[in-house]
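Sorry to interrupt, but I need a hand with the structure work. Go ahead and set the record down below:
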Amino acid sequence: MGICTAPDEYQTCMDGTLGDLDIVVVYLDDIIVFSQDEEEHLEHLRIVFKRLKKYGGSLNGKKCYILRKEVDYLDYTLSAEGIKPQAKTIQAIQKIVVPRNREELLRFLGIINYYRDMVPNKTTLCKPLHRFTSSKV
C-alpha cells in the first residue's frame, strides 16, 4: 500500500513545529520567513532556526535563500508589492491552444481556477465555457 499519507503527516509535523509563528508560511519542506526589514528578518530567522533545532529539524543550505526581496513559491512570485503568477506561468498560459475537447477545456479551466484571485471577473469570463464541460455536450 505504501505510505500515501506521508505528505499529510509531514505537513502536520511542520505545522506543529512552526505553525504558531505568524512570521512563516510552511508548505511541506518549503518555509518562507516574512519580515519588514533586514534586522527584523535576521531576528525572525533566529527564531525559526532555534525552533527547528529544538524539534530536530534541519535545512539544506544549498536550497536556502536568505534576505530575498522576492520569492517564487508554488507558481507565484511573492514580494512587498504583492502576489502574482510567475512570469513563466503567464507565458505558458498564453501559449495554451484553444481546447478541442471536454478534457482539454477542463484542464484549461483548472489552470485558470488555480489563479482565480489573479483573474478579474473570472467567474463571468468563464461562465460561457462551463456549459461545454457537461458530459452531455
